[in-house]
Structure formats: C-alpha cells, structure tokens
Design brief:
This protein is an alpha/beta fold. The protein has one domain (about 25-290): Alpha/Beta hydrolase fold, catalytic domain (Rossmann fold). It is built from 8 helices and 10 strands.
Length: about 300
Amino acid sequence: MNLLKMVCIAALVMLVNLQAQAEIIEQDINIPFVGKGPNGEVQKNMIGTEFRPEGNGPFPLILINHGVPRSSSDNGKLTDVYKDHARLFAQLGFVVINPLRPGYGKSDGPITDSYHGCDNPAFYESGMNTAHDIEAAIDYARTKPYIDINRIVLIGQSGGGYGVLALASENLPGVLGVINFAGGRGARGPNYVCQEDKLVDAFDRYAKTTHVPMLWFYSQNDHSFYPGLAQRFYAAYQKEGADVRFIVAPAYQNDGHEFFHDPGTARIWMKEVEPFLKKLGLLDGAVGQSAANGTDNAPK
C-alpha cells in the first residue's frame, strides 16, 4: 500500500470517528431528590451528566454509578470520571446518565450512604441508601420522552457497584440487568475490609430477593475486595440461585480495583458486556462486537 493511500485511509477513519462522536449530545443535568433540611425534608439536586444519541428515541438507559472515596474529605472533590465510558455506550444507542450522589462532588448533601464506622458497620442499610439515591436518577429518566424506562441497565463501580446490587434486590420495573465492577463497601486499606462477615451477610440479604441477570467483574489484584472475598460475595448469590456471571478480570497496574476507571480497559470488559447486553435484547450484535474488537469508537 503506497503512502498516499495510507494517509487517505487514516483521514477517512478519523472523519468517521469525529462524525460518530458528533452524534452524541452531552449535557449537564440536575436530578431532583428529597433530602433532609434543618426543618425537615426539602427538595435538593444531584448533579449529573447525560449522554444520548441524536434522534427522538426512545433509547434504552444505562446508569453509571461512582464509588466512594476512601477518605471522606475527598467526597466533595469527586467528578464524573466515566464520561468516556458513557460516550461508548451512547455510540451503541443508549442514553447514559452519570449521577453524582448526594454529598459527592457538587451535588447537594449530606451524603446518605455512610455505614457508620468499622465497629458495627451498617452495610445493608448503607447499600439501600445508595440504591435509593440511584433510584432518584431513574425517576428523573421517567420524565424524558426520549428514554425507554422499560429498558434500563445499572452499572456501578466499588460503592456504586454495591449500590446497584442493593437496588437490584428491589426488582424495579424496567431494570433488566446489572453490571457490577468491584462492588463492595468497608475497604479501609490494602486487603483490609471492616467486618468482612457482616459485608458478606449484606450480600446474602440482597441475593435473596434479586431476580435480574447480573454480570460481575473483580480483578485478580483488587486490593479493596481481594479475590477470596469476592468469591464469598459470589457464593452468597449462588446459594440463593441468582443469575450471576462472575468474571475474574486480569490484574491491572498496582491495584485492580481501578480496572474500570481506565477507559482503555473497555477492550477487555466489552467482550463480556456486549453479549450480556445482547442477551437482554438491548444491543445489535454486530455493533457490539465491533466495540469489543476495537473497530469502532471505543476508548483507546
């Protein structure tokens, strides 16, 4: 192939990529929720980012939910770190909403999902509070005519992954599936989690009432929820007969807990996410497979 032809092909590929990216509408949004004020309940707002394809839809919805900083002093510094991930799913025909839950980033506070310390952690209650915050984003989506609220997938990482598992236990109408990246709570240091047995018990309680298919990823070198503990989470769901596909993700840099943060890992996890979404009836197999193979606009 001569040099001129190679340059022309490269230019064409770049043009196609730019056109595909231009088709995604990105906007900052305010998601209303009822929170606590000095004199009782008041209307407050979560900050979020919404991504959607051009057109009237209605499009299926993906909600991507963030984790929890290890230090509470970092809660207000949190930003939307999943914009590249959202653009990828929007290019595949989804509306994607990335909310910042109460008390995180610039969203109104206070936080609702504290587990109240290591001595007697309220893991189950913490997860349900996270779930209710996520549900506020679903209520917001119900007001948008371009969103098909009967076709929803929940995605979460770490504390957000734990929250989507909690919400899945309520089997909300329209939630068809859940994708959990390294979900859990109570990690206080490398391979140290507060009251592990209580955390596993909370997973078991969620599993008892969960009836939606799920896809889980835990990395080989996750130093928040190490492989042995992740297997205990999975065993709790197996015991209850839940529909869970458990993926051992490859080691990622110094800590696999950050596996999902890097948009470049989409080339790994899309090989599992694409068939999962296809099984749910939400994705054109050809389009999804191109993402998994790295032939579309998946993050590089």
